[in-house]
Input
Amino acid sequence: MTPAGWEAVIGLEVHCELRTRTKLFCGCRNEFGAPPNTHVCPVCLGLPGSLPVLNRQAVELAMRIGLALGCRIEPSVFHRKNYFYPDMPKDYQISQYDEPICVEGALTLPDGSRVGIVRAHLEEDTGKTSHIGESGRIHGAGYALVDYNRAGVPLVEIVSAPDIRSAQQARAYVAELRGVLVATGASDGRMEEGSLRVDANVSVRRAGSDVLGTRCEVKNLNSLRSLVRALEHEVARQVGLLEAGQPVVQETRHFDEDRGVTVALRSKEEAFDYRYFPEPDLVALAPEPAWREAVAASQPPLPAARRQALAELFGAARLEGPRAEQAETVLELGLDALVRAAAEAGVDPALALARTANEAAAQAEAARQVDPGAYVALLRMEQEGRLSATQAKTVLAELLQHGGDPADIAERLGLVGLDRGALASVVAEVVAAHPEEWSRFCAGEEKLAGFFTGQVMRRTRGQADGKLVAAELATRRAAEAGAP
Amino acid sequence: MSLAPTASAIAAAVRSGEVRASEVLEGCLEAIDQVEGQLGCFVTLTPELARAQAEAVDAQVAAGAPLGPLAGVPVAVKDNLCTAGVPTTCSSRILASWRPPYDATAVARLVAAGAVVVGKTNLDEFAMGSSTETSAFGPTRNPYDPSRVPGGSSGGSAAVVAAGAVPLALGTDTGGSIRQPAALCGVVGLKPTYGAVSRYGLIAFASSLDQVGPLAQTVEDAAALLDAIAGHDPMDSTSLPEGVLPCHRALDRGVAGLRIGLVRELVEAEGIEPGVRRRVEDAAEALAAAGATVEPVSVPELALGLPAYYLIAPAEASSNLARYDGVRYGLRVDGADVEEMQARTRAAGFGPEVKRRILLGTYALSAGYYDAYYAQAQRVRTLIVRAFERAYEQADLLLGATTPTTAFPLGAKVEDPLAMYLSDVFTIPTNLAGHPALSVPFGTDDAGLPVGVQLLAPALAEPSLVAAGAVLERSAPALPPPPVAASWRLGVPR
Amino acid sequence: MARLARIALSPEELDRYAQQLAAVLEHAAQVAAAPTAGVPPTAHPFALVNVLRDDEPRPSLDPAVVLAEAPAAEDGRFKVPPILGEAP
Ligand SMILES: [Mg+2]
Ligand SMILES: [Zn+2]
Output
């Protein structure tokens, strides 16, 4: 939480690894987790004489991201950003500088707040360095090992305006952005694999002020959790300094996961000189209007529109409370289409949303592959009482694992639900066998509902739907009360 | 007149079965042996590779298979072009033992055309120089006077062709590095249009200026080599999609009706030797006699070429040469941490000229100076491009000297960078514009040293250059054979 | 400059290069004086645009060939002395 009387001013730079088959400038595979230095060639190793050639699909994904964020797609130029670092094969990074491909957009968050997007540009990733030695960290390492499989993987760097006012809003921004990136097919969204990496520019000021304070850049925010922890710590640290009458020093800081604090890396007073200049080995990029329009026309639905569509299932403008949380879960996992399909087939949207956000979400990967027709059929069986909730969950687990027709699965597992008539006669038998308990229940002893349900379950060997049993009991009691 | 068998004569003899490629090769290797000790043209000789390539050609001949246009022709390759498995050093300590895993496109196309690669020629370190003296492996000497430089940076390629030991060689030209040594050694050198020949596998010096091209004994051979290596390459984003028209067909086209501008700034410049200037005027007369209209033109902006070049080229070089950092390949000098290792490696691995240019380029790109130096040089580049456009409204081709002076003594300019840079003053503007240009030998100065005259053309007008170059070649005063020359013939008497 | 260019130079070398660079930069002053108001820069001799490659994998190099050129290697990776700082 931001300390009272203070306001945080946060801008985020999100590096998104693009889901292309090959790297940005060469034909090596863009694939996480391969043995070291197996996806390298003269180009991405920076061997003398090699030259870059731009990947069309990376450009297309960058355009998709830009269009999804409401940016203008502009003619752009690649520059070289010169600095020495062993994970960078050419000792310069090919990036975009003053003429990026996407400029000026915005992202609206689920709570309705709006974060400006300054730019989104294409650039190449670096290799991966491992520090070897006692500590396994930079300090105290004996030596380092470098793997260039990641070198040259396409990145889009998305730079937000300093419009974010709290760690929680930063979290919401990254979560929403991740949803957009996954929806467009640009990213797999796996922060734990480094597919999305976040740097934050943070400053604080007195609430109500419109002066910008001195900012620090915090690096290494590689999960939503560390993003929140790091920002809360950094905001509190800066407020603490200012309240103690000390200045905030402009610098780059690194988030130490273990200790939960940000630590200074180097001072920006000695600003690094990257000596940017136009990359002479590449030509200008100016996607022709037809290409741009084709990309725009084939944009998949984005999270905001899909969120809206879920709300509409409930006849609401916006979902609130637990239902909103369920909606976020299915959106994040890309399962909202299942909910919509079920609701359109007449399934109660609350049931469709609950099953999808809980049981299906628990096996999201399988749920994304499931045949929507079978999924909808299963929810209908549950809704019509042909399966109890428990039975429906069992069939769903089987359906997600092996596929198939839910009716066949239910039959194979011997899970045949009782229809309403059969259930009513079982309830009648139970009531007849326990007249004393029944009159106490009719007199208002509610806990006896459990007793009767248990009896029904015993007679049906668990095949009855608990909710239907409760409904039947209530109907019966009401009928008796009404007929003296 | 050529000293040694020309490429076209060799290709014809191999094609007709008069001589085997392997015999040609052995003659060539012996010829190299005769002069190499005195001239130092090669960094690496590749006789085994060459023998395998020659045998492959002979097998094609024996099988009646189709032959490439350069079948059986020995070629020498400048050592800044990658050759798979063969050391490619750029004449630098930092790459002294590096073996690339791939061939440069130009080399691969040569071999596909049937050429036989006999070795890698010496150059100024990373092609930075005009005398081949900055090579880490010692200088190459001029066959016309071994106490003089062959020019640079393609000095090894120029000298070995001039000495008649190898008929054809690949060079590279960033600011004159094909044409200037061609002029100083008395051979033909052609710098193609930027993008006409792929740069893939050419170790970059200044990426927006570098271009691969031929050095040859005759204009015909230069045209044949260019035809073999030119053409679009998807591995080079700056490779022109349309490509150059075949040049060999233009050889006999002549110059009748062509308008040729004699460029005042490439003839009357301060520092030009009278012997050189006289030869250029003779060449102009020869072209006029052959039916061209020769008119004086003035392109004052050309004077801005040299200073603009000495900002742009070092700037690009400072970035291109950053990768030599001791991490992935090449030299490493150890250090306590990676930064120290890199600084020591680069201190030990680069020679003084390379360090000078890296420092200059780093300066020109640095934050406070970028606009005054690098960006301003690029605007001047535009002025030069426009000036050429205007000149080519009046003329189809331009004519001038290739260099202000003939070959100078070894050591004369190494300690004075500016004086050395001035020897490229006539060749540099072409590179900035991306245009093609040809240097043709045209007699000697009073001391008997070769003089080169330069023909300049708009983009992709190589065929016109070849046509006019062939006319100049036919009308040039005879060039005496150099004192250091190989003697060899095609293996079998006709 | 020497630090940005990452070249270890002795004080004598620094002196010599400083003098030589000053001479070249003096020559370059002609560039500064050139009439370039309103003139756009030329980064490329020819203004090609949109040179693109299809997203099709091509074979990578054999790691043994790649690492054979490395000054030092371990576990399939390039080995370097300790890295003291983060990338700038
Ligand atoms: Mg970046
Ligand atoms: Zn690669």
Notes: The pocket of zinc ion (ligand 2) is lined by residues A 23, 26, 28, 40-41, 43-44, 152 (CB under 6 Å). The interface with chain A takes residues 4, 6, 43-44, 47-61, 63, 66-67, 74-88 of chain C (CB under 8 Å). The longest strand of chain C covers residues 77-80.
